[in-house]
Amino acid sequence: MAAPPLLTLQDVALTFGGTPLIERAELAISPGERTCLVGRNGSGKSTLMKIAAGLVEPDKGVRFVQPGTTIRYLAQEPDFSGFTTTLDFVESGLTHGDDAYRARYLLESLGMTGEENPLRLSGGEGRRVALAQALAPEPDILLLDEPTNHLDLPAIEWLEAELKSVRGALILISHDRRFLSALSKTTVWLDRGTTRRIEQGFSTFEAWRDAFFEEEERDRHKLERKIADEEHWLRYGVTARRKRNVRRLGNLHQLRKDRREDRRPVGTATMTSTEADASGALVVEAKGAAKSYGERRIVDDLSIRVMRGDRLGIVGPNGAGKTTLINLLTGQLPPDSGTIALGTNLKMMLLDQTRAVLEPSMTVTEVLTGGSGDSVTVGGVSRHVIGYMKDFLFAPEQARTPVRVLSGGERNRLLIARALAQPANLLVLDEPTNDLDLETLDLLQEMLTDYSGTLILVSHDRDFLDRVVGSVLVSEGEGAWIEYAGGYTDMIAQRGEGVQARTVASTTKAGRAEQRERAKITEAAPASAKSKLGFKDQHELKTLPERMKKLESDIGKLRAVLADPQLYVRDAPRFAKASALLTEAETQLGAAEDRWLELEMLRDA
Prior knowledge:
Blueprint: E1 7-16, E2 19-29, E3 34-38, H1 45-53, E4 60-65, E5 71-73, H2 86-91, H3 101-109, H4 123-135, E6 141-145, H5 153-164, E7 169-173, H6 177-183, E8 186-191, E9 194-198, H7 205-236, H8 246-261, E10 282-293, E11 296-307, E12 311-315, H9 322-329, E13 337-342, E14 348-351, H10 364-369, E15 375-378, E16 381-384, H11 385-391, H12 408-420, E17 426-430, H13 438-450, E18 454-458, H14 462-468, E19 471-477, E20 480-485, H15 488-495, H16 509-524, H17 535-562, H18 567-570, H19 572-604
Helix pairs in contact: 7-8, 17-19
């Protein structure tokens, strides 16, 4: 018998501005469960997550949390006021009995030193610090809303591994397919205000969802036919008596009501690009190109050819210089040395991840039409701007909506819509997948697959890279960039490892001096000293014996409870719960013993 849920939401409903956002939502989270919460942009996923965290009060429904359960929620916009360093902020999330060393370990793993001023962090840095604060206490339930936003590939892969080792329950919202597939065991789908649950991870969800929509469409077709039959009877079936069958007429009214109240899925985006005349065979050629800022080398001795029709992906950690590299390859930035030549007849379209081209005061229509008229030319065909908006999931009433009130996903869709209307034979996309839902990602991928021009793509989405690009240009550090054939997974197979994070560097003179001294010590140390256990491993080796001792004590107590031969007859639920806990404790003890032995052998080596 499964353990009782730690958190339950029953028949939850919430309305914003007269429109029901959530109508009949259910959620149950058991100990150790791995659940992903999925749905279209605007479906209410983040709101439901906040209701689960106790931050938003629903209009109706019941939220129940088992007494003593600890819950941590990843805040989208953390409040750093009152904290002098990032370490202070992360440690503020710890409670009595939590591991105090974990705060610094998490910050350093996420590329932070712990000494930064929280009020001077960039958006990405603030996200990392908030993530460290949520993970530090190791709560019973961890609620993570888009935890990979603003993280680079090394941080995403580190976070994925870290969450696999978390003992508490996880609820995840993410648009990163590979991240969800690796971590989820259960899927909750929020669709048209209602939740549906499948006891499988995200990897099987999309096929299940498509089958559900097909069945729903068949049911809708049956309803339409039934209404048509009843309307035919109403007009022609009683002409002899001119007397209505009141009951049958009532059924017809009910069928019509069901059709009116049926909430269909949100429309599907339709993406088509406006392609210019073909470019020359050679699009970009770099020979020995180099670029530095001060003593820091961004690009060093880069030689690469991009031919017409190539699909080049660019990956690397934050700060590696991916945007600078794009500016070099597209001729927007001259190299310090070497040459970069552009091909003939190039018509380039650049999608900038900063969204700087969007004026906050402009309306959706003005962005798409350039501020004149009410039509937009796509593929040489003039279209009314409202129809083009619908292709990208914008409602007609949003035509006069200013950019400043759009969500991140809506802004990105608007940028893509604007970009794809411009004739181009070279697409340069810098993080185009930010804030897009899974369905829109699928359509962007299909559009890029059908695109006959040349593509240069910067992305941290591993699955998207695998689906779209034909080669990957990877930062190897110190300005070196190497091209690998295939997608991101192919690159790992050839390279032997994924993208590595940049080393955290101190900005103070004392910090730089300390780093130089450490480097001297490391160079002088014998090879055997370099294989010492890391800080995390040392701490784990120190704490494992106490944990194993506690598990052995728990196992002894549970075995004593189960030794009662009358327990099953007298209290079957208690017997089932004790059996499940015993199995879990024995599994954890076995894993702890294996880990302790592994660390001991590493220390001896």
